[in-house]
Write a structure and sequence with these properties.
Layout: E1 5-9, H1 12-22, E2 28-33, E3 52-57, E4 65-70, E5 77-85, E6 99-102, E7 117-121, E8 125-134, E9 141-144, E10 148-155, E11 158-162, E12 165-169, E13 173-177, E14 183-187, E15 192-201, E16 241-250, E17 253-261, E18 266-271, E19 276-279, E20 298-302, E21 305-310, E22 313-314, E23 334-339, E24 354-358, H2 370-374, E25 379-380, E26 384-389, E27 394-395
This protein binds fe (ii) ion (FE2).
The site of fe (ii) ion (FE2) has 4 residues, from loops.
């Protein structure tokens, strides 16, 4: 039976189960391409061969899952090769201090997967930068089997290909790629520079629970909703024999897995588990008469961290409001900010591509003069991605090569 339908809301019973086991529901059931009317039943190709059913599920058959139908069994591995261990090297000088890294000064590589630069990490997440000029021949098939990924596209455009179809992306998009999903980045043009800020999350990544009702639907106060979420578009399966190498990350080991067929051989799928995209420009800011705290900017939740988006918005409208934030000791969280354009209302000395770490244990606040500057201003054009972690972060040695060592004294004016 042929079906190709748009996303729709989940039935109540399913979302209750998801809420209980997964923290927050993914709101959409999606079906793409061709699937049999009933699961686990005969579904044949024109040749008479069976399509090969494949459950991609989580939490031991209790979490979100999708059913995919392949032309070839996804198990046809012809060989494996060790690429290497992923070892996160901590910096040598762990003194507690304010940190600033100019990521735009990191070299541009040729691989968005094995060439990533680790920046910050703890047991819950790793933040790294993938910056490479690639073309379609260099695009690597990649499956992160140990972490969900939130990828912020800072520069460049292209298509995220996966077993689930294609998802066009451009600068400003978040790509959420749940663990286990094979994918690759196809740049829009030859030698396109893609700059991606990658958050690898040990736990599942979801929209904030408080944005959704008990059925998994986004509530009216949520800064984004179902219409803002983009899911893969269907493309017909590729039935190609040959040698295709996948890079799989599991247990901090990268392995090259060789298949004897093209992995994009899915004729249809359905379920709750798939990659999706949200543009930072579709995040609708919440503003008020007085300064709104960071939780109004929250975009995603993970285990042990939240991710927030600071987007262009009108400033506070109380006649005596100070729009810049007050000094604050967020004593239970490290604050990471990635500056996605040149502007940030409370900072000086940062630029596009800067990354700052304000660790728990040190109060932080606006740079000298910034509180005064903000009084009477109507709006900000800032664009930034913030990750607040509940456990302390370790700075990776690789990040220190582009560190602004004077940053810790930058509040002196
Ligand atoms: Fe802060």
């Amino acid at each position: 039976m042929r079906r190709c339908v748009e996303p729709r809301f989940a039935p109540n019973t399913s979302t209750h189960a998801l809420t209980a086991s997964w923290g927050a529901p993914m709101a959409f059931y999606v079906q793409r391409g061709e699937v049999p009317r009933k699961r686990h039943t005969i579904f044949r190709q024109r040749s008479g061969e069976l399509y090969r059913e494949h459950l991609m599920g989580t939490l031991g058959f209790s979490g979100p899952a999708s059913l995919l139908y392949h032309v070839h069994p996804p198990t046809r591995v012809t060989g494996t090769r060790l690429i290497g261990r992923v070892e996160l090297q901590p910096e040598e000088d762990p003194r507690l201090r304010m940190r600033h890294f100019r990521l735009s000064d990191l070299p541009v590589g040729e691989s968005l997967i094995v060439g990533r630069t680790p920046l910050l990490f703890n047991a819950d997440l790793t933040i790294s930068l993938a910056s490479a000029k690639t073309d379609s021949e260099q695009a690597e098939f990649y499956r992160n089997a140990q972490a969900d990924e939130i990828v912020y596209v800072s520069e460049g455009s292209g298509t995220l290909e996966s077993e689930f179809g294609v998802l066009p992306f451009q600068a400003g998009d978040y790509l959420v790629i749940p663990r286990g999903i094979l994918h690759r980045y196809q740049p829009a043009s030859a030698h396109e520079h893609l700059r991606l800020l990658v958050v690898e999350s040990a736990g599942p990544v979801t929209p904030p629970r408080r944005y959704c009702n008990e059925r998994g639907q986004f509530l009216e106060h949520s800064p984004y909703c179902e219409r803002d979420i983009r899911v893969p578009q269907f493309v017909p399966p590729r039935d190609e024999k040959g040698t295709f190498e996948l890079i799989v990350k599991q247990n901090n080991v990268l392995t090259a897995i060789e298949l004897d067929h093209h992995p994009w051989d899915v004729v249809g799928w359905d379920g709750y588990y798939y990659p999706w995209a949200l543009s930072i420009y579709d995040f609708e800011p919440i503003t008020g008469r007085l300064h709104q705290p960071p939780p109004v900017h929250q975009t995603f939740q993970g285990h042990g961290f939240v991710l927030c988006s600071f987007v262009p918005r009108l400033f506070d409208y109380h006649p005596e409001a100070i729009p810049a934030p007050y000094n604050h000791s967020n004593v239970m969280s490290d604050e990471v900010l990635y500056y996605a354009n040149e502007e940030f209302m409370s900072r000086k000395g940062i630029g596009y591509g800067s990354l700052t770490l304000h660790p728990a244990g040190l109060p932080h606040g606006p740079h000298p003069g910034k509180a005064e500057d903000s009084i009477g201003k109507q709006e900000t054009r800032e664009l930034a991605v913030m990750v607040d972690t509940f456990r302390p972060l370790t700075v990776a040695a690789a990040a220190t090569s582009v560190e602004d060592a004077d940053y810790e004294r930058s509040w002196l004016g």
